Every structure is written in C-alpha cells, then in structure tokens.
Amino acid sequence: MAGNPFRPSFGVSPPLLAGRDAELVAFADAIESGPGAPGRATLYTGARGVGKTVMLNEVESLARERGWVVVTETAVPGLVERLVRHRLPEVAARLELSSTGNGKHRLTAVTLPFHLGGVTWQPPTVDQQLDLRAQIEALADHLAERNTGLLITVDELHRADRAGLRELVATLQHCLRDERPVAFAGAGLPAAVADLLNDDVLTFLRRADRYHLGSVDPVDVADALRTPLQEAGYEVTDAAVDVAARGTAGYPFLIQLVGYWICKNLPGGAGRLIDEAAAAAGVRAARRRLGALVHAPALRDLSEVDRTFLAAMAVDDGPSRMAEIAERMKVGANYASQYRRRLIDADLIYPAGHGLVDYTLPHLRDYLREHVVTEI
C-alpha cells in the first residue's frame, strides 16, 4: 500500500509542483545562457505558503542537473561567517580542488582548513580574516574551467542579516560584472524584499528578475491533486478532484494540506475510491488546520492597527470598501490608506476594484471572524 503522497510542510517540495513552469524555464535558460543573462540574479516573493522555499529547492535542482555547485543559506545573522567558515570550505572539500592540469594556483589565495589535491590549506590564525570574495571568485574560476558554475541561494530574506547580505550581494555583483559563472536566487516576504531593494548598497538586486508567486491556475491545481493520488494507487472521480481543487482556492500550501487530509481520512488507504464526500471531508479538515499553520503566524507579525484593519474587513462577505473600513476603525481616509498600502505590500490584501480591497490568503475572513474579538 502506497503512503500518503502529499507533504504539507513548509519548504518541502510537493510530489508535483503546479503552476510554476514559466519561472523554472526562465531560470534554467539563465543558467544555460552564460554570463550576462539577467536571470542569474532572481528573487521570489509572495505570501506565506505560496511556495517560495519550494522554488529555491527547484532552482537548486535545476542547477545541479546542469553540473553546477549549489550553496544554500538563510538570511539570519552570521550569514557571511557561515559562508566563509563552513559552506564554501565544504564545497572546496567535496570538489577536491587542485592546481593540477593547468599550472595555475588559483585557490592558494583562499585560506581553508583542508589539504586538497596537493594544495595545502592552512587554518586561519586569530588575526586572519577569511575573505568571502576571494573564496567565491576562486571557486567560480575553478568551475568555469569545467564549464559549470556556482549558485548561491538565500531563503527568508525578510529575516535579513542586512550587513551580511550587503557583503554577499556586493561580491556577487563583482563576479557577474567580471563574467564569472555565478548565480543568485533569494526568497522572502514581499514587504521585506521591497525594503531591501530600497537599500542604497543593495541596488544590484533591483536589476534581478523578480517573480511574485501567487495563486495557481485551477487546471494546474487539479493536476497537482489528481496525478499524485493516481500514482499512489487511489481512484479519484472528476467530481472529487473538482471539489478538492475549489477548496484549495489555488493556494499552493493548501493543495498539499487538502490532499494530505483526503488521504488521511480515507478508510483503507490506497486503492480506495475518493468521491465527492471524501474530498469535501479533506477540505474541511485542511481548513481547520490552515488557521494555526498560516493565518496565526501571518497576523502575529503585524501591528495592532494592521490587525484592526483586517478585522474591519471581516465584517463584509466579500470585498470591502475603504470608506467603510475607515469608518469602522474610526479613523480618517488618509490614515486608513497608509495601512492599506502596508497590507498590500505584505501581500495580505489586494485591490479588488475602485476603492475596494479583499484578502489574499484563502479563508482569512473566516479565521478572523472566529478568532479575533472585535466590537467593530
């Protein structure tokens, strides 16, 4: 009996990635096109659960398939130190870098605690400073001779170690300017990435390819549900797929959550028929868990006024009028508009027409009605 094919965990790649083909093709083309391709610096943004980390997983796989070396990191404090003391030396050790074959000693400028291929790498003394740029350039030059390159990915840019990110980006900018085979992909929440792009030292990122990951097309959602179920040995009706797909609202994390609970609740497991009732039960179970996994963390990062704005919207059954939101909040229109912009930048609401806004996250209205106490 096959196991449950769905993986409702953040950052874990799904059995079938839905609706991201264009973004992946663009990155693969950048890797194959050589230095100067704009996609060699790429940023992915979007709300929680839209698959930003999954996209990094996928572009890493694309790079490895093409013989590239991949270094992965997260933008928390200590970014550069981890790169120069651990990640890059580990890559050098795996590659067993040497100076044989071309008479060049490109890597002797890098201080690493290894003996590789006849080149002795001495550990740094207390007074020595490992240099990020020297290490990356040395690795890139070594890989260039073998017609491959170095991809560095950095997740959670919204938690940015700003100083470390500045140093890394400046180094990569020099490498790209010198046409070395390096590439960068980063991911983070929209408002934080927008803030990074306003940093005077990080202007290089403004020229990066940017993809805002949103909801997935219904046809792709249906395929992302049906194919893993059938491959795992389940029988599933068209009506059940339709119920499940509509229940996800095109939200990537919810695709995995709905699929998981459909299988979890089905007596007998694989080989059983999934009908409309089973699909509807899976949707209900997934929605009960969505609040704790997505809505609560999203609200926790907001200011009190941000949350009040969202609660004011929950009074309506559909898109909310800005004038009515301001009235419920007992504030002026200009004041409410400032928070409208903040929440749009955070990808929690979107313009739904002239003077109208609506929620980006599926089922957030229901969660707010159930969990946020308000007298609005």
Question: Main attributes?
Answer:
376 residues, Rossmann fold, Arc Repressor Mutant, subunit A, 5-stranded parallel beta sheet, 3-stranded antiparallel beta sheet, 12 strands, 49% helix
Task: Please characterize this protein's 3D structure.
There is one protein chain. This protein is of the alpha/beta class and 376 residues long. It has three domains: 21-212, 3-Layer(aba) Sandwich (Rossmann fold), CATH 3.40.50.300; 218-298; 302-371, Winged helix-like DNA-binding domain superfamily/Winged helix DNA-binding domain (Arc Repressor Mutant, subunit A), CATH 1.10.10. Helix content is 49%, strand content 12%. It has helices at 21-33, 52-65, 79-95, 132-144, 162-177, 190-197, 218-231, 238-248, 252-265, 276-300, 304-313, 322-329, 333-345, 364-371, and strands at residues 41-45, 69-74, 115-116, 119-120, 150-155, 182-188, 209-212, 235-236, 273-274, 320-321, 349-353, 356-359. The strands form four sheets. It has a five-stranded parallel beta sheet with strand order 2-5-6-1-7, sandwiched between helices. The chain has a three-stranded antiparallel beta sheet with strand order 10-12-11. A two-stranded antiparallel sheet has the order 3-4. Helix 3 (79-95) packs parallel to helix 4 (132-144). The chain is globular, with a radius of gyration of 24 Å.
